Amino acid sequence: MRFIVGFLLIILCIYADSSVAIASEDILNPSSVTTGSVTNSFVTSFLEAVKSSKALLEVFDWRQLLGEEVAQNIYRDVLSSLSSWGAADPENNAEFATQHIPKNFSVLPWETPIRVYGRGMANYLISEGILNERNADILAKAYAKSYEYFANAENKIADTKSGFLNFAASLTALTTERGLKLAQKYGEAWQSETSQQDT
User: Fold this and answer.
1) Which Gene3D superfamilies does the UniProt entry name for this protein (predicted)?
2) DSSP secondary structure string, 129-179?
3) pLDDT tens-digit profile of 40-79?
4) In sequence order, what are the residues at sequence separation of 6 or more whose Cβ sits closer than 8 angstroms to the Cβ of residue 11?
5) Separation CA 143–CA 163 (nearest Å)
6) pLDDT for 91-144, tens place per residue?
7) CA nearest neighbour of 41 among 123, 156, 129, 161
């Protein structure tokens, strides 16, 4: 966690000297937000950052994984996390988080998991009053870096869980309420991305 916080501070310092400088108070105290455009900006920047990293491309390349295997592994991870946070009814919440992971996983565009993890985090940060149009790009790039820290490609599901939770924890204390919100936003992200493929 210290690595993530430290890295965010480094990124802020670098961008402070560039033409797209963003004050630290803008990162933590955003003004009004247009949710859809902010989410799209964050997801686009996150997708670009992942595509530019060989290590991250490996972590998010799930084309050889079975949808049922993905859903079961993530269900166990979500259930374990929610239980450790003392959430009520962790089974049903874990089920919601994973119910839209399709069995025909292989037919989805390869970047679907990237978009899901980007959308889930973006909407969580918006709900916490952190993400806005001004800081979407810088936070998305820092978010991508959080996955590089854990990437080993031997257990892709575990790597993505670590990157996802550690970045959230670097910006917010993961209380029971926030843990439930993370699971909700993650499930909604799968629902959104897979429904777009059906249309």
Assistant:
1) Spidroin, repetitive domain (1.10.274.60)
2) T---TTTHHHHHHHHHHHHHHH--SSSHHHHHHHHHHHHHHHHS---HHHH
3) 999 999 999 999 999 999 999 998 888 899 999 999 999 9
4) 138, 141, 142, 145
5) 8
6) 999 999 999 998 777 788 999 999 999 999 999 999 999 999 999 999 999 999
7) 123
